[in-house]
Amino acid sequence: MTSPPRHMTLCAMVPLFREIYGFRDLLWILVARNIKIRYKRSALGFLWTFLNPIFMIIIYSIFLKILKAFDASDPVYLQKLVTGIIVWQFLAMCTGDALHAVLGNANLVKKTSFPRIILPLSTVLANLVNFLLVLPILIIFLFATGAFSMGAASILLPLIILTQLALCLGLSLILSGLNLFFRDTEHLMSAVMLAWFFLSPIIYDFSHIPERFQRLAMLNPMCGIVTGYRAAFLGTDLMAPRLVGLSLLISWLVLAIGVALFQRWQVTFGDKL
């Protein structure tokens, strides 16, 4: 078996980590700026971080009840759905913001010397902060509806979050660079994300996928990530460890590829902006 390229190995990434750490003040400034920009012109500002998921839970609860869209065989269908959508939104926000992470900072890229990887990294970390603030609201909702269940799978929660973080960062690195070379990337991603949403177990369980397609579906890292969150919060989905393990491998591979491509592309950013 051939070994991975040297620029994708962890040892080769150590200098990059050191470089990012050297510019950590700039990184946190950009993270704070990205958080503030999202709610800059709204009256309630940062409160929308908490209000958005609350309104979403209320709306889904009302309309699913009116339309009688609950899965009669699954007493916690609503809770699974809300969990899946909140997890999906973290990915969707990261990929959406990544498209303009470099393109929207043209002046900074042209006039300042710093690790360019900080730009997409700051957008992902800003969305991570938002996601971590939303999780307590999700837990309160699950607890209030009697669906919250701490089990053995709950131990996997930090690993699940890191897995999704690796996937989001890897994709953000790829998309932030790709959008400079191919400006239609933003429009294509709308269709890609829509298809990815329905190919991921957001509105259904992984177990609902026909058995003959399950091995193929497991190559979708969001299958293991969503299933893992549900297992951690609801005590469901017994095959979560296996799914999360495969998602972990795929997500870190995406991150390694993202770092390698971004490092190669960044030398031409000044010419493309």
Verbal overview:
This protein is mostly helical and 273 residues long. The chain has one domain (47-272). The protein is built from twelve helices and no strands. The chain has helices at residues 10-22, 24-38, 48-66, 77-98, 106-111, 118-144, 157-181, 185-199, 211-217, 221-234, 240-265, 269-272. It is globular and about 55 Å long.
Topology of this protein?
Blueprint lengths: L9 H13 L1 H15 L9 H19 L10 H22 L7 H6 L6 H27 L12 H25 L3 H15 L11 H7 L3 H14 L5 H26 L3 H4 L1
Helix pairs in contact: 2-6, 3-6, 4-6, 4-7, 4-10, 6-7, 7-10, 7-11, 10-11
Name the features.
12 helices, 71% helix, 273 residues, disordered N terminus, globular, mainly alpha
- Number of continuous helical runs: 12
Looking at the structure, what is the overall shape?
globular
Low-pLDDT stretches are 1-8
**Beta-strand residue fraction:** under 5%
Distance between the termini: 40 Å
Helix content: over 70%
Major pleated sheet = none
Please tell me the total number of domains. 1
SSE succession: HHHHHHHHHHHH
Mean pLDDT: 84
Helix/sheet category: mainly alpha
| β-strand number | 0
